[in-house]
Design a protein that fits this description.
Number of domains: 2
Distance between the termini: 78 Å
Strand order of the largest sheet: 4-10-9-7
Order of helices and strands: EEHEHEEEHEEEE
Number of helices: 3
Number of strands: 10
Radius of gyration: 23 Å
Strand content: 25-35%
CATH class of the largest domain: Alpha Beta
CATH architecture of the largest domain: Roll
Structural class: alpha+beta
């Protein structure tokens, strides 16, 4: 076993700045060649202490942003108008459209991959939509789809 200082995040091992014990071969053949870890010299430890502090600040800011966003989003209703026939939409409401409307109405930028649709929104009515903001912080919004008034 050998102690190494992680220089990058390694799944199931740790974050940059962590000192972990790993098998010699794993360090020599995988971590060191990929520059994922270095030997924990005093200089390297000091260098990654700064990196780690910066990363922790970044994560705290992300978490704070997620809490503020959840306050604004929880229970919010977005309304879309669609052409429909017998309650079925001609075109479904897409994640991109939900993200665009959230940005437009609440000035919160949500990546479309964070919007969880259990099933595609293809019918008129109110649909519950979950948004993953950060780790275990999620928000629930409602998407209300109403029939577009006919131009007749």
């Amino acid at each position: 076993m050998i102690e190494v200082l992680l220089t990058q995040s390694v799944e199931k091992l740790g974050e940059p700045g962590d000192i972990v014990k790993v098998a010699d071969g794993y360090a020599r053949n995988y971590l060191f060649p990929r520059k994922l870890a270095v030997l924990p010299t005093p200089h390297a430890i000091n260098q990654f202490k700064k990196v780690r502090e910066r990363r922790e600040m970044e994560l705290k800011q992300r978490e704070e942003w997620a809490r503020v966003a959840r306050e604004k989003l929880d229970g919010f209703t977005l309304t879309f108008q669609r052409k429909a026939h017998d309650g079925k939409l001609y075109s479904s409401v897409r994640k991109e459209e939900i993200a665009e409307q959230i940005l437009e109405k609440l000035n919160i930028e949500i990546p479309k991959d964070k919007i969880a649709l259990e099933t595609p929104i293809e019918a008129l009515g109110v649909h519950a939509v979950k948004i993953a903001l950060y780790k275990d912080i999620t928000a629930s919004i409602r998407v209300h789809v109403e029939e577009e008034p006919s131009a007749g």
